[in-house]
């Protein structure tokens, strides 16, 4: 089974995890995490949730399901909509990522991707669109024809 790093594309089985006290928050977090995985062509093998963020992570039933699926090879990665679903701060989230990586997987936060723009990209695209507007596949047969 391939192990695609965060940001990579491929048919990698992942788990979606959410933990919040309010059911609508859990549903929205799961929806956003699934969308993130789908955009990368990752197969969502399952979704696990917990309803009490105050409970330590190692005693949450949903998280226990994730670790079992990771250990058995059922999943290769874990997608969460926000680090707060798993950890109190960024350092704790990073440490958890190392633990998941030690088991052969990856942990990723489903954040919206930044738009990748290169210098002058907008101007180059405008020039291409303007040139395309004046081009016709029949121009060489019947000069003067413009779409």
Mean pLDDT metric: 82
Name the structural class.
Answer: alpha/beta
Q: What share of the residues lie within helices?
A: 25-40%
Unreliable stretches, pLDDT < 50, 5 or more residues?
1-7
CA(first)-CA(last) distance: 50 Å
Number of strands: 4
Instruction: Name the strands of the widest sheet in spatial order.
Output: 2-1-3-4
Largest beta-sheet details: 4 strands, parallel
Order of helices and strands: EHEHEHEH
> What radius of gyration results from the CA coordinates?
22 Å
Number of helices: 4
Shape: elongated
**What percentage of the residues does DSSP assign to strands (E)?**
15-25%
Output the keywords:
alpha/beta; 147 residues; 4 strands; single chain
Describe, in plain words, how this protein is organized in 3D.
The radius of gyration is 22 Å and the shape is elongated. It has 4 helices and 4 strands. The protein has a 4-stranded parallel sheet, sandwiched between helices. The longest helix has 17 residues, at 23-39. The protein has helices at residues 23-39, 61-72, 90-102, 121-134; strands at 13-19, 43-50, 77-80, 106-109. The protein is α/β, with parallel strands linked by helices.
């Amino acid at each position: 089974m391939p192990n695609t790093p965060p940001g990579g594309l491929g048919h990698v089985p992942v788990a979606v995890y959410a933990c919040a006290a309010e059911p609508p928050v859990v549903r929205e977090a799961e929806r956003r995490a699934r969308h993130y995985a789908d955009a990368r062509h990752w197969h969502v093998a399952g979704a696990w949730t917990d309803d009490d963020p105050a409970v330590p992570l190692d005693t949450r039933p949903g998280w226990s399901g994730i670790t079992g699926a990771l250990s058995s090879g059922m999943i290769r990665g874990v997608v969460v909509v926000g680090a707060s679903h798993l950890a109190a701060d960024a350092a704790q989230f990073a440490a958890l990522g190392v633990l998941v990586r030690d088991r052969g997987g990856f942990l990723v936060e489903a954040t919206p991707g930044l738009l990748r723009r290169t210098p002058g990209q907008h101007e180059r695209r405008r020039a291409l669109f303007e040139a395309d507007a004046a081009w016709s596949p029949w121009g060489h047969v019947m000069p003067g024809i413009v779409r």
